[in-house]
Amino acid sequence: MNRAVLFLLQALVAVVAIALWQILTTVPIFGVTVLPPFFFSTPGAVWTRIVKWVAEGTIWRHLVVTLIESMLAFVIGALAGTLIGFWFARQQSVAAVFDPYVKMMNALPRVVLAPIFALWLGLGIWSKVALGITLVFFVVFFNVYQGVKEASTTLVDNARMLGMSERQLLRHVYWPSALSWMFSSLHTAVGFAVVGAVVGEYLGASAGLGYLIQQAEGVFDVAGVFAGMIVLAVFVVIIDMVVSRIERRLLVWRPAAGERT
Q: Which residues of the chain have pLDDT under 70?
């Protein structure tokens, strides 16, 4: 599909959703307002709140705090997940020993860990970063592990016959095999890094988008809650676009989706 047409269709979905929201919150249907503005606010009120935050400059400090926490969680979690996933995939005995512990840690509900991290690391950024790392790590870890395991055995055998060392195999066979899987996981991991930061801020912080949403919720300011969520959604989309751009530059050898057979 043409990129311009795709963009127009995506914009159309947003316009229809906002129009429905406006109609259902302001126009009575058979004498009843389907979505009471007290609980759902209105697009106009939410937009006014966002403009006010931007004009007063209050949103930028919170955005910067959430961005720093998210990026630290994303980079540290993705790096750790990549390295350990690679190591486990190449060392089957190590993977077998740690397998039940990895599954147990992955099964832990992360929200439960937030108060523990706050107790250990305080209410600063590092408790939010730690929570984000626990979310990002496992997504990247499992994808890299599977990506290395999925490397073509024929390719590996041929490379060995040509005399490739283990280091050359890692660079020319296993790493390219894992790269596609890793970047697929990074799109999900970006969202998880932001979720970790925002949940941590929501439970205890003095700045950040989660703090902003929590403050608005505390005074029943529904417009503020929706405005915070919309800013958060735009924030995640922008970060995801950056990851996609990096992916395209690093995976130039990979054919586009429509070109694959």
A: 251-261
